[in-house]
Amino acid sequence: MLIRVGYVPYSQDLQHPADRRRLAAWAKDKKCELNTSNPLDSDILVLSNEANFGYWLKRAKQPVILDLVDGYLGENPNLIRDVLRNIVRSFRGTSSLRWLTYTRHLRTACRQSTAIIVASPEQRELVKKFNPNVFVILDDHSELISEIESSFPFDNSSVQQSQNRYVFWEGFGYTLKHFKFIAKDLDRFLDEYNWGMYLVTVEKFPRWGGYLGEIVTKELVADIFPRSSKLIQIIPWSIENLKNFSAKSEFAVIPISASDKFAAMKSENKLLSMWQLGLPTIFSDIPSYNRVAIAAKQDGACVKGANWFQYLQRMANSTRVNEGMKRESMKYISDTHLHAHLVDKWDEAINTVFKGNRT
What we know:
By secondary structure, the chain is of the alpha/beta class. It has 16 helices and 13 strands.
């Protein structure tokens, strides 16, 4: 029996990464169409984190699944921040002023939903106190596979257009703030070693709350990296640019400030995407990364403490170590993170909720 799935997405064209790499990837594999125009006309309703949970839960007659990819419940923001977040989201239509704080809205939605999907075991532990029916499903990174990656292992020098060597990073503009705590070490490394860095991101982004004001990426980079900003190239974000410029890079970095409780509860999605691109990667010591690093024999790449310069030096000077990191990370992807694995997990979540509603 075909299960009709209604979905309130991040983007109506389903091209936002949190749509495209999650439920939309499952739907594409199953050759079924998600009902985004009238999501209440469905057997199951799935709400992304861009949905106004209270609005849809009040109207839904069918089982409701929340797809929560971010660790808001682990942040414990102060009252002012929580209230302001709810106000901004209310004006955006993704919350309501009656909740007072966004955390209150989110906790209530978790209690009222049939099931919740999160992106890491760490997030599951936070959510289980509000709803016992929790599934862990990571993003589908199969869109990052290319002929270059499939011929792994490969020699990056064959695709580079110059003698320069590059560090790689990609992400939303607002996550550039995480470079600040490693700026001194990375700035020194790029300058002293005469390396470049590719930042695959946006040219400008909102200053506050993801919606208000404007920050120009080039200006921010110049402030963060006074010695090496001329060695840093800002590349417009696209799938093709991710593939092309990662193939020209030696390794990737994922810095996450330990003081950012929201970011510290992120899943391993970003790390797995770098591995899928074939990049050895050094990364901050947050719970999800540390867990996966141990499982993938990559714990030596998990930067513990503040001295990133030593790790950057090692990556620059140890080709043999980097090749070993590639092999282990790609083996982990193959063993645990193939497209078929993720489709099976979505099948399990949707079928469990659907069958539970019929009994």
